[in-house]
Amino acid sequence: MSDHITIRKAPGKWSVRSGGAVLGESANALELSEGDYDPVIYFPREDIAMAFLDRSDKTTRCPHKGDASYYSIVNRSSVTRDAAWSYEDPLPAMERIKGYLAFVVGDTVKVEQI
After folding, report:
1. Which residue range or ranges hold the DUF427 domain (predicted)?
2. Contacts of 65 (CB under 8 A, 6+ apart)
3. CATH number assigned to the domain with residue range 5-113, chosen from the 4 options 2.60.40.10, 2.40.50.140, 3.40.470.10, 2.170.150.40
4. How far apart, in whole angstroms, are the C-alpha atoms of residue 111 and residue 100?
5. Which of 5, 39, 48, 76 ranks highest by number of CB atoms within 10 Å?
6. What does the alpha-carbon distance between residue 102 and residue 8 come to, in Å, rounded to a whole number?
7. Tell me: the pLDDT tens digits for 37-57?
8. Using CB atoms within 10 A of its CB, is residue 61 exposed (0-12), middle (13-18) or buried (19+)?
9. 62 vs 10: CA distance, rounded Å
10. How far is CA 7 from each of CA 1, 2, 15, 54, 97, rounded to the nearest angstrom?
11. Over the stretch 61-94, which tens digit does the pLDDT of each residue have?
């Protein structure tokens, strides 16, 4: 694992909401800390209502984690483009986040400990 990235089980239960809808809740979330960035909560895919997510064309590359695929959140009132990402085939040192999703927190997306 990269020496500036740590992954641990996130304490407690976490939720992600968008547009008034709860997209998921999990007691099995992971917290990824990387350098000086704020920690990011990763949710197991099975704890997310994937019907709200549409795969987008956006991808990015992290030299420490690999290639990220992005998803837009689609609900009855809005579309939040590229609001979630997943490392579907992460580099070997980051294998622990495979099958997890993280969210771009902002005005329309909230990730909270509950």
Report:
1. 15-104
2. 5, 87, 90, 91, 94, 97
3. 2.170.150.40
4. 14
5. 48
6. 14
7. 899 999 999 999 999 999 999
8. exposed
9. 22
10. 9, 11, 18, 26, 8
11. 999 999 999 999 998 878 899 999 999 999 999 9
Structure tokens at 69: 């695929």
Q: Which tokens sit at 6? A: 């740590």
Residue type, 112: E
Could you tell me which of 32, 27, 30 has the C-alpha nearest to residue 12?
A: 27
Residue with tokens 């990269």: 2
